[in-house]
Amino acid sequence: MGETKAELMTAVYKVHVHCKQCAHTIVTQFTQFPGVREVKLDGGKVTVKGIGFDAEKLRKKVEKGCRRRVELVPPPKDIVTEVKSKKESVQSGSERFYLSTRVISLAGQFLLSNPIDQ
C-alpha cells in the first residue's frame, strides 16, 4: 500500500467578532471543515491548525456559513531591511582587542547578533 505524507498546516484569518454568539458560530464553521484539528479565536484573529486542508476553500466556506467577511492573513516574511556593523576597540592593560557586532533589522524588529571576529 502507498503511504501519503500529511503535513501540519497553520492558517490565520481575520474576522469581525461582534458577540459571543458570533464567536461560537465562527468557531463552529471552522471546525466543521475536513482536515481542521484545532481552532483558536483571539479577538478578531482566528488561528486554524490541521492536516491537508485548503486555506482558501475554508475561507469561502466560513464566509458563506457565518455571513461575515473573512480575510486570510498571509504568513509574515522575515525581510532583512538593514544590517549595521560596528567595530569597537577595547584596551586591557597593554593589549588591545577589537570587537565587531551586527545589528539586523527584520521588518521592524531589531536583533543583536553575537560578536564576530574579523
From TrEMBL:
The keyword rRNA-binding does not apply. CDD domains: HMA. Gene3D superfamilies: 3.30.70.100. Coiled coil: none annotated. Signal peptide: none annotated. InterPro entries: HIPP4/7/8/17/18/19 (IPR044577), HMA_dom (IPR006121), HMA_dom_sf (IPR036163). One of its GO terms (molecular function) is metal ion binding. The keyword DNA-binding does not apply. Residues 13-64 form the HMA domain. Transmembrane segments: none annotated. Keywords: Lipoprotein, Metal-binding, Prenylation. It holds the Pfam family HMA. PANTHER family: HEAVY METAL-ASSOCIATED ISOPRENYLATED PLANT PROTEIN 4 (PTHR46195:SF12), HEAVY METAL-ASSOCIATED ISOPRENYLATED PLANT PROTEIN 7 (PTHR46195). Belongs to the HIPP family. This is HMA domain-containing protein.
